[in-house]
Amino acid sequence: MPSSLTQRSASTYIHWGMKTCPSVTATTMVYSGQAAGVHFTHSGSGEYICLPNDPEYDNYNKIHDNERSLMYGAEYEAKPNAPAFGDLNEYDVPCSVCLAHGKTTLMIPGRTSCYNGWTKEYQGYLMGEYHGFHGKGYVCMDKNAEALHSSYTNLNGALFYFVEGRLVH
């Protein structure tokens, strides 16, 4: 359900890989949650989303057929002992939705610094689904990403892989 908050100038963004919002900028946490999306082998709806840790259900109906959309928790897919995120391989991915006061936000992929006039909220790695699976878009995973506590289950639902650019200039 889309929500709005009366505010002079603000925007929201998802802080992927972290349970909190950056403390170095003027942000307020809207909620903390878990990354989720469509199973890596399924088609249909499926962009990455940040589900709140405290869901509410309205008129829950148990469905007994296959006419529904399925959502799965997301995991890091990084080689064990890799320079980045090796210790997070197969762990579930936290996220937080942040309200940035007095500014507009966007992700600038492929850079570690901002263009003039912009302020960095956080720095990270571009991640997305494996190139042979159904796409879900790209996210900026915080370079200091953390795991959800006791979440090493390797259920392989929605997955986050590092992106490798193959561009022609």
Automatic annotation (TrEMBL):
It comes from the Eukaryota. One of its GO terms (cellular component) is extracellular space. PANTHER family: PULMONARY SURFACTANT-ASSOCIATED PROTEIN A, SHORT-CHAIN COLLAGEN C4-LIKE. This is Uncharacterized protein.
